[in-house]
Amino acid sequence: PVGSFSLRHASFLGGTLGVGARDCDVFNCLFDRAAVSGTTAGTNTFFNNTFLDGSADFTTPPSVGSITIKDNLFVRSSLSSTNSVTHSHNGYLTNYSRLSPAHSNDVVVTSIDFQTGALGVCYLPTNSAFINAGSRNATNAGLYHFTSATNQTKEGSSTVDFGLHYVAANGSGL
Q1: Which of 6, 53, 131, 134 lies deepest, with the highest CB count within 10 Å?
Q2: Bridge partners of 159?
Q3: Strand, helix or coil at 107?
Q4: 63 burial class (0-12, 13-18, 19+ CB within 10 angstroms)?
Q5: Are 149 and 123 in contact (CB under 8 A)?
Q6: Beta bridge partners of 53
C-alpha cells in the first residue's frame, strides 16, 4: 500500500482519485470530469485546485483524520462533505453543490467563462470575483511565479486567487 503522498501541479482528465486511509496533500491540480474521494482516516489538504464537471466526496469519520479544503474552485461539481471538514475561501457557481456549512468568505458567481491561455484552458478572466479572494498570500502558497489569468501577471505577494494556477509565461509564451 502507498503511504503519504503529494499531488502538485497536475491535471486529471477523467478517472478517480481515492485517497483512502492515507495522508495526502493535493495542491494546484485540475480535476476535469474526475471523481475525487477524500474519505480518510489520515490528514488531507486540498488547496488551489479546480474541480470541473466531476464529483468530490470529502467525508471523514468522527474523531478520525482531518480534511482541509481552501482556495479551491468548484465548477458544476457534485460535492458531499461532513461537518468535520475544515473549509473556507472556496469558489462556486450558483445552483450547484457547495460544501456545508457555507462560509461568508466563499465566493459564489452565476457563471464563469474560462479563457484559453499560453498553458491551458482554465485561466480566469481578469475581472473574476475569484481573483485575490483566497485565504493566504500567494507567497505563502508557493504561487509567487504563477498566474491564473491570461495576462500572465504573476501572483507575486498578492492574496492568492482561487483554483488552478499556471506558471506565468513571458511575452513569447515561455
Answers
A1: 134
A2: 137
A3: strand
A4: exposed
A5: yes
A6: none
What's the rounded Cα separation, in Å, for the pair 146 and 94? 27
pLDDT beyond 70 at 73: yes
Q: What is the pLDDT of residues 106-150, one digit of tens each?
A: 999 999 999 999 899 999 999 999 999 999 999 999 999 999 999
Counted residue by residue, the chain has a size of: 174
Closest CA to 71 of 94, 86, 88: 88
Round to whole Å and give the CA distance between 150 and 78.
28
Phi, psi of 140 (to 5 degrees): -70, -25
The C-alpha cell that represents 85 in the structure block:
471538514
Say what the pTM is.
0.93
Grid cell locating 1: 500500500
Answer whether residue 1 shows pLDDT above 50. Answer: no
Give residues with Cβ within 8 angstroms of 157, minimum separation 6: 137, 138, 139, 144
Would you state the cell numbers that stand for residue 121, as one nine-digit string?
A: 484552458
* Beta bridge partners of residue 45, listed in sequence order: 25, 68
Question: How many CB atoms are closer than 10 A to CB 18?
Answer: 12
